[in-house]
Amino acid sequence: MRFGTLSGRLVVIDGDRALDVEKHSGGRFSADVNTTLARFAEFSAWAATADFAGSVPFTERELGAPSPRPRQVFAVALNYRPHAAEAGFQAPEEPLLFTKFPSCITGPITEVTLPPGKPDWEIEVVAVIGAGGHRIERAHAWDSVAGLTVGQDLSERTVQLQGRPAQFSLGKSFPGFGPTGPVAVTADEFGDRDDLGFACFLGDERVQSGRTSEMIFGIDELVARISAVCPLLPGDLIFTGTPAGVGNRREPPRYLQPGEVLVSRVDGIGEIRQRFV
């Protein structure tokens, strides 16, 4: 199943057509993403047999964030060994977590106003939580993931790195700094849910690429580790980490400029596109 939002309402997607969940379930499921993801097993069973006769065409520019109002947004630092190395750190032995404040979450095709400082990019595969739970066993962790989507952990490095300790969450939460989309895709749609290829481009230059199989801590382990402390709620997001190639670790460093367009792609999901002003 592929799901997302149109005009803030939950839809199931097939190709270039979308089915309004609340309308076509006769009110059985809500148009609110978090409310319906709380009943994810029931919802996905309904979606598998949904009649698309009443679906409507759409363009990706019309799509919003697949989970537009997450109550919790978790992000994982240094979850790929090459990125840890380029940042000058040893690979972590425990997941290193911070948050992106939910107000930064946006949809897939956006215009982002660059703040002063040193803004750059971090492509990430993002897990959207379904029913969630507390102390989820790793063996059952994938059952709590509603789908995977494309994300960018945009970062302004001056704010992020000022002070001791550093201001990670603040520097990564400017308006528009959490684009996601274009849709969320359930794990059963992938040939191997633990090995997705992804890349991002500035213009014609590929600036990052990787595979989720290269993560230090896989999605199932992240779900188990996070939920051991924090109950995961329907619609929560986990930004699972970025590979090497971020701008502030290049020689010389490279930062986003007005007029540039950043395109981020994940195999089997699609792409998001940010234009900077």
UniProtKB/TrEMBL annotation:
It comes from the Bacteria. GO terms for molecular function: hydrolase activity; metal ion binding. Residues 73-276 form the Fumarylacetoacetase-like C-terminal domain. InterPro entries: FAH, Fumarylacetoacetase-like_C, Fumarylacetoacetase_C_sf. It holds the Pfam family FAA_hydrolase. One of its GO terms (biological process) is small molecule metabolic process. This is Fumarylacetoacetate hydrolase.
